[in-house]
Amino acid sequence: MTTLVASDLDRTLIYSAAALGLTAPDAEAPRLLCVEVYESRPLSYLTETAAGLLAELARETLFVPTTTRTREQYRRIRLPVPTPGYAICANGGHLLVDGVADEEWNRSVRSRLDSECAPLAEVSAHLRTTADPAWLLKERVAEELFAYLVVDRAELPASWLKSTAAWADERGWTVSLQGRKVYAVPRPLTKSAAMREVARRAGADTALAAGDSLLDADLLLAADHAWRPGHGELAEEGWTAPGLTVLPERGVAAGEEILRRLLSAARGGRED
Ligand SMILES: [Mg+2]
């Protein structure tokens, strides 16, 4: 019996200071473990309790970190577990096996994108030329697979987002707004495709998943059971699906509860 647990990281298991959503009085706040430092400053946290649950989960299941982060961004994160046998980066574009990128997987993903979608250069050029410096803060290409903009969300016109999404859709790309980032991702570049590949290789019979954002929807749908927190883009849309449990918790407390539920389900306990 192998249970695969594919979980998103940012705002699902780990949280920046701004995303912690602490509500208890300061003297009762949970102790936090910093798991990511960026430019010499602490960036991402989980609760000490969540860290303990995650360590148990990684011992008892095939825990697969599943993120849209690039490999470089992923490798900054130091989860309190041994190097996972598999990790999914770049929204499914890279599969790390014992921490090393599987080039064959990347090649197969790229050949599919080449045949099914408009090229990245065309999409990133469109973003660059239509974005307004009034709200555009940064413009990035990730792993030569997809593009994202960091924006001033308050100034971003909904009309730009809508017309850009329609333009991209005709070219086989999806545009979505997540926090301060506008992502343009080729439609076949998914976390779920990579998760299915891991399940096949590992001979997993059950897949559990967790995630908070629009780029996690396919992952949650592909799992036997899935959980999402009470915050995030999926929560804002009231998104739900068969086999999905919506948790009321928000912020870093949701991360802890997700781990509790995953562990309980993996142990064959209550799965909701
Ligand atoms: Mg997330």
TrEMBL record:
Superkingdom as given in the UniProt entry: Bacteria
InterPro entries: HAD-like_sf, HAD_sf, TPP-like
Name by which UniProt lists this protein: HAD family hydrolase
Organism: Streptomyces gougerotii
Taxonomy of the source species: Bacteria, Bacillati, Actinomycetota, Actinomycetes, Kitasatosporales
